[in-house]
Records
---
Amino acid sequence: MELLLQCVYAFFACAAFSVFFNLGKRWMPLTCLGGALGWFVYLLLGWQSDVYAYFLATIVIAIYSEVMARVCHVPVTLFLTTGILPLVPGAGMYYTMKYCASGDMALFMETGVHTLALAGAIALGIVLVTSLVRMWKVMRSPKMFYQDKIRQEDY
Amino acid sequence: METNLSTFEYQKLLNTAMDIGHFLLASGAETYRVEESIQRILYAYGVKHVDVFAITNNITVTMTMADDTCYTRLRRVYSRSTNYQMVEDLNHLSRYICKERPSVEEIHSRLQLIRQKKPYPEWSMITLGFGGIALWFTLFFGGNWQDAAVAFVAGALTRVVFRVMDYLHTSSFFINLVCSLMITVIAVKTVQYGLADNSDSIIIGTLMILVPGVAITNAMRDVIAGDLLAGTMKGVEALLIALALAIGTGVALIAMGGV
């Protein structure tokens, strides 16, 4: 129950961020759903290693964003940047800084490396999905991309 | 592709395309979207060749006409923020331009309509936006409702301080430093006076407003798309903000003996 409540908090946190980003009211529920969905996937995989769960949750959010962007005809960034926000390792960054300030070097290194690994997992998830979608786009309509290529080299 | 624009109209078209690219870049679109939009718009009107180079604060475009005359424009983008309504509208506009090829005047009037759209009013930005982010993220990071109420106030204050310092043209590094310092002081002091329980949750939750999550995501997307320079710039920007937050929070914690 406590965990489901966290998903609800993630939903509303994303809603607040979409006000900050001046996102249109039409897409707000869908973008916030992406954030809640990502956190839900992370919680489902909680028995795995933290980094692996982050990686898979990011992949789910990225796929959700790509699909929703196609469905709603809006840029992917709207969904992706908002959906990723609950996963941003703010707590890890804070504790890293705190251990550094208190001079606890062992804990500082441990937390710092873990936070970096989490950030890396997010980046890797986005890279994977975006690259695969690009490949899929080219495969679906090679002719269009061939013409684009000619245009770029037609001096 | 039939084209009956005069040279003067082509130059006006180039300026309008630059405007669209400028507003896209200033509202937080990816670099490749800016480059592609300008390129597609100009190609749609039968320009022979278009070269676009965009980084986070600069766009350069050269268009080569059928008779090999060239026109170059450079646009410096000074202030950037995140405005996804604008990105969405401009994306629709550039798709419409490529499909229908309207007159330059029509593009111009549509652009003006998009620019005149009002963002959310300031009070809702303070309460629903900044206050809301702090409130919900504090609950998210394990705070109770008392902590959330304190975080709401801290978040709303952050917006006010942010706006005032932005108005005074302070560098973003210093703004972030001061804001994180203020947030930490508020959190630690309220916990000391017994108004809230968990200073860690309040600080983490409120700092989420300033943590450069979007900058990192966009930097990654730029690097994937091959815009290494723009990606690196955004990455460095994110690192600087993170550094400012760490310094601000750390200094406050050490000064007040919260560590």
---
Amino acid sequence: MSLRETNKSMRLRRTGVVPSDARVRHYDELDEETQVTVRELAGRPQTAPEADDLDDGDVVKFTDYYEVRAR
Amino acid sequence: MSDSYVIIGDGIAGASAAETLREEAPDAEITVLTDEGESLYNRILIKEYAKGKLPEAPISIHQESWYDDHDVDLRLNTVVVDIDIENDAVHTHEGETFEYDSLLLAVGGTPQQLPVGNADADGIHHFWTFQDARNIKESVEDAEQAVIVGAGLLGIDFAAICGAQDVEAKYLMRGDCWWRYALSEEGAEIMHDAMRERGVEPVFDSGVDHFEVDDDGHVEAAVDPNGERYECDFAGVAIGLDFNTELVEDTPLKTEDGIVVDEFMRTNVDNVYAAGDITTFNDLILGEQAKNGSWGSAKEQGTIAARNMLEYGSEEFEWVSSYSITHFDFPFLSFGHPTLGDDSVEATTAEGEWRRVALKNGKVVGGVLIGDLSPQSAFKQLMREGRDVSDQKQLLMEPGFAVDDLTAMTEQ
């Protein structure tokens, strides 16, 4: 199970600069379920339940760099 | 007295084994030996560093303090020169001896050098370690022209690095398309176009006959077997790995293009295990021995090996791997064993979207998805289930394919 049982929702925001203190995760490191979420959210103004293996502020490398915003 | 575990290698396989051992055996003595000068880093992100897209810091996964905090004895820059199977001990280049109750070999591979003249010249790079990435970044930043050799998943990283650093490159390929063992020309052409957009020109039916060097021994051109000469300030070579089995050559450990292990990651010696790229493992899904070099597979193998080192037979390695390319504005993903099988089915499903599924005895054993990754989970599920799809294989090419589509067909 990779979706957290919290009320937080997550979105991905394209980012041009990756800070040195960011945790960066490559698509291949993520759980299969989280990969599906990343594919659905990348480049789209949508939200999804927060994934278990991503935290607010993480940066995901997919076809671009995306910052995780979990609220 | 607590059990002692020695792990050779601090890549993701060795490190995940150390983590698992510490979690599940709090009193165990754990030693990690690595010939590298830095602790675990993210090997799948070092290409992003070389592209100039990432700073160094996020690449690191385990700071050296992690090992102290978890009571793991980490020895950097330590080369194991001998494994004494009879006496349960390993010896290092500095004459140290580490005895073990159980040993894990996570020693990976070494990039192959082209067997051609001047292949070791200055300016010719291979890409495996973080230090390689630093050297490549430095070299590419000063380059205007490059040559790339190796039409596979690692070679394309060089193409992306050149593209990102505005270096014009010729990508010399022996066949008529990139990764010809897994893609047809139709699928590969999507990748070729993406390379061209970034200033990297694929050159087919080519390769390298020899390199030319200047008076300082720096590469200045590659000459292909057709006699064509390609000037370069930099060359990237990624033609495959030699697995680091020389360490076990004089031991009873069985090797076969790697160290042979069962589904529990155990070698033919009861207290010696292996994990990661180095293994030739019993692939329960494929039904035969296999190799896999993906990050996820290596991490899982390290975890499984650790659990079986603690209790043999406790957990099998059963895994469908995948590997993605995220250099372009469309995704690419290979899964399972796309170069194997006795049959395949492929289709262009939309503009810029292509897929191919490899089958063996009617069952999915791997594939490639370009542009649309949505069937990834369904295809992996079919692999895990060992479902015979030979009569319905064209359904796999339908946009929006789901496993239930097959069920519906079966029930009709």
